[in-house]
Amino acid sequence: MSLIVQKFGGTSVGDIERIEQVADKVARFRADGHQVVVVVSAMSGETNRLIALANEVQERPEPREMDVLVSTGEQVTTALLAMALIKRGVKARSYNGSQVRILTDDAHTKARIRDIDDANMRRDLDDGCVVVVAGFQGVDERGNITTLGRGGSDTTAVALAAALKADECQIYTDVDGVYTTDPRVVDGARRLEKITFEEMLEMASMGSKVLQIRAVEFAGKYNVPLRVLHSFQDGPGTLITTEEESDMETPTIAGIAFNRDEAKLTIQGVPDTPGVAYKILGPIGEANIEVDVIVQNVSHDNTADFTFTVSRNDLPQAEDILRKTATALGAREVSSDNKIAKVSVVGVGMRSHAGVASQMFEALADVGINILMITTSEIKISVIIEEKFLELAVRSLHSSFGLENDPEELARN
Amino acid sequence: MSLIVQKFGGTSVGDIERIEQVADKVARFRADGHQVVVVVSAMSGETNRLIALANEVQERPEPREMDVLVSTGEQVTTALLAMALIKRGVKARSYNGSQVRILTDDAHTKARIRDIDDANMRRDLDDGCVVVVAGFQGVDERGNITTLGRGGSDTTAVALAAALKADECQIYTDVDGVYTTDPRVVDGARRLEKITFEEMLEMASMGSKVLQIRAVEFAGKYNVPLRVLHSFQDGPGTLITTEEESDMETPTIAGIAFNRDEAKLTIQGVPDTPGVAYKILGPIGEANIEVDVIVQNVSHDNTADFTFTVSRNDLPQAEDILRKTATALGAREVSSDNKIAKVSVVGVGMRSHAGVASQMFEALADVGINILMITTSEIKISVIIEEKFLELAVRSLHSSFGLENDPEELARN
Predict the structure, then answer these.
(1) Which residues have C-beta within 8 Å of that of residue B344, sequence separation ≥ 6?
(2) What average pLDDT does the segment B262-283 reach?
(3) A382 touches chain B (CB under 8 A)
(4) First to last CA, chain A
């Protein structure tokens, strides 16, 4: 018997029929003797309906009241799922964030979990109950309802799994696992049986469609085994776990990640003095624009060239800010390009395997793709290329690293 | 400056436009310097939508989960109204039943309030906040969400007013007050400026359309001045208060109440022994059928005739039960009639004014109406008559007691 936390998102509980299917699945786990805590999101569409009501009142409503409003969505689902379980003869009790109690800070609409009281859940689990918990929400020290922000239900599930020391946290979604790359781009993309937390984080550009990065970080920090599974298809999914848990030889590369939503800004001829990077990126950060890749070239003539990427949506605003900075700093020129994309090769194996970078650059050169920027981390190498070459680059790399039918894959799993 | 509790029902907060109107009204009270606690129901239709979802899962869902589900309806309204107030520059905070904390017993779907913690509300009121509270709900000692049953929001408002020792509890509704009788039956029906709790209870057949009887009882018990007002029309409404608060001469009669939803059952020739009333009415009560008027005639030949009325819906079931009882008791005959109605003359003044009964009977005799049953209480005389005479009876009595243009009315107000 193991203790499992299962999380079902909005689409998986989108109507009563689907809630009944989820109840069937949960009931089977109970019948197999497992203790189960289920975390649910609001029925799909419900959160947007509530936000639309609020926006009829005001464009930017008071965050405290926004949390009171939208937190009802998950509460409705918990009650309906508990009813569906009870109908099947499965003991079940619903809990909202305040009832659990999931204590958060008071940052309404984007609160962070501080502590979880597991007493009520433990008592119910010991009593043979399935515990159904509203995702995405908590309560601050003064008893105000808080929410964790969009996708926060994944975080709730991982946090509960950590608090209960669950054997596994299962995230049910509309894909059957994490792939070596996007199957829409590469026919031969394969589902991974296992991936490390670090790789999952670096695969963010694809991973974020599967589960919230914040939940992966949380799971890694508390060493909660995470499994991504399809809500309505049977299958083992992908297990996200620590490297150390596997004693098998790890292949070099886990997958190829990519992101189209990139635009690059270059400021040239900046006086190369200490603090110049802060002078350039400080105003961008203050405008709440997230910067992704940052590259500073070696200086010449005591000036430096500085390039960074932002989301395409943010480009016009970022460019305005950068032009002001350029004037202030006496820089030579500002230029921008939004027809770019980022492609990354990800794998913990590259820590111990030399030559991954050169293999990557070679594969791209072989198909005539020019590299605009390069940035590396311990387990990822990313290049910025022209957007029109994106699919070609992903397919070449997927093939070059033998991800279609990697003979090492069996060892990996 | 006074402290006012205001309650707005589902129709009054049925959409965002109406919530904005309610916010305007509340904001005016704040601007006039009053402290305001607002109790709201779910937006009209919302509770039924939630119940329909539950019934898709199961016909009789677990009561605990039902409460978790439907209590979200009021919570949504509290957030939207708080937002609308904040938009107007009025400080406001929403509370659900658990946050207040409104402690109830654990009788899910029909819980009764045990205690109210006024600390959070007091702090906010002292801070210049409008406190917006979800009606209809509370929390039991173990933190489970409970609901007070349909119409429970009136009870919440009165209970909060009692706990806060509010100067007035205002129930906003779709009528502009309590009338001497139903204006649809008598053109000259007048809105009462004042009515006592006892009269209001006795006017139940009309009063129940205006506010929940349970709330009136609660208000009477804790001596909370209750005012019934129209949500969207200005006007003083009707104040429901204790007799003692008025030092003015009270007129004899407050109004004429009536009820069409009556059916009568008669059991004749019952052996007149102690406990016979219980033997007849016990089985009826056990079947959850409410009995209204009960009349037992003087016995003759050691047998009694026993007549009582029930709701028309309950007549077939009640008659079945009564026939079985009649067989068991060896009674002579059971008969029934569902073409009857009840008309009542209500007024605390009849305590000290003789002759009200004879004036009532005379008025009915003058228009040729035969009285089938009579029952009296300290402040009410009710007669059962044939249904076809109902309107005629009400108009005759309204006129006979001078309710259209009672010269004493000015003194009463």
Answers:
(1) B202, B203, B205, B256, B257, B258, B380, B381, B382, B383
(2) 87
(3) no
(4) 24
- Rounded to whole angstroms, the Cα distance separating B74 from B97 reads 10
Decide: helix, strand or coil at residue A343.
strand
**B382: number of CA atoms within 13 Å, CB side?**
22
By three-state DSSP, how is residue B245 classified?
helix
Residues in contact with A145: Cβ distance below 8 Å, sequence separation at least 6, in sequence order: A67, A68, A71, A97, A98, A137, A138, A139, B96, B99
What letters, b where the CB count within 10 A reaches 16 and e where it falls short, cover A175-212? bbbbbbbbeebbeebbbbebbbbbbbbbbbbbbeebbb
Q: Does B57 touch chain A (CB under 8 A)?
A: yes
Between chains, do A68 and B16 touch, taking CB under 8 Å as contact?
A: no
Please identify among residues 62-101 of chain A the ones whose CB lies closer than 8 Å to any CB of chain B.
Answer: 62, 64-66, 68-69, 71-72, 75-76, 78-80, 82-84, 86-87, 93-94, 96, 98-99
- Fold classification of A255-401 is VC0802-like (3.30.2130)
**CA nearest A184: which of A405, A406, A390, A412?**
A390
B88 interaction partners in chain A (CB closer than 8 Å): none
CA of B66, closest CA in chain A: separation in Å? 7
Q: Give the residues of chain A that fall short of pLDDT 50.
A: 245-247, 407-413
Q: Which pLDDT band, with edges at 50, 70 and 90, does B202 fall under? A: confident
Which of A26, A76, A95 is best to mutate for the B interface (most B CBs within 10 A)? Answer: A76
CATH T-level fold of B255-402:
VC0802-like (3.30.2130)
CB contact under 8 A, A87 and B58: yes
Residues of A in contact with B45 (CB under 8 A): none
**Measured between alpha carbons, how far is residue A161 from residues A29, A157, B201, B376 in Å?**
16, 6, 54, 66
Which of A345, A353, A329 minimizes the C-alpha distance to A396?
A: A345
DSSP letter for A271, please: E
Number of residues that this document lists for chain B: 413
- % of residues, chain B, pLDDT over 90: 64
Q: Which residues of B touch A144 (CB under 8 A)?
A: 99
* Residue B190, both tokens: 């007048």
pTM: 0.82
d(CA B413, CA B411): 5
Average pLDDT over residues B348-373: 86
Residue A410, pLDDT score: 44
Domain B3-245 has CATH 3.40.1160.10: yes
* pLDDT single digits (tens) B222-265: 999 999 999 999 999 999 988 654 445 556 788 999 988 899 99
Q: Model confidence at B411, in pLDDT bands (50, 70, 90)? A: very low
Peptide bond into A150 cis (omega under 30): no
Q: Do A82 and B93 touch (CB under 8 A)?
A: no
Nearest-angstrom CA–CA distance, A145 and B98: 11
**Domain extents in chain A:** 3-245, 255-401
The distance of A75 to chain B (nearest Cα, Å) reads: 7
How sure is the predictor about B291, in pLDDT bands with cuts at 50, 70 and 90? Answer: confident
| Contact state of B62 with A86 under an 8 Å Cβ cutoff | yes
The CB density around residue B142, as the number of other CB atoms within 10 Å, is 8
- For an interface test with B, give the residue of A68, A91, A142 to mutate (most B CBs within 10 A): A68
How many inter-chain contacts (A to B, CB under 8 Å) are there? Answer: 111
At residue B293, does pLDDT exceed 90?
no
Say how far apart CA A315 and CA A338 lie, in whole Å: 8
Residues in chain A: 413
Tens-digit pLDDT profile for residues B58-116: 999 999 999 999 999 999 999 999 999 999 999 999 999 999 999 999 999 999 999 99
Q: Are A3-245 and A255-401 in the same CATH fold?
A: no
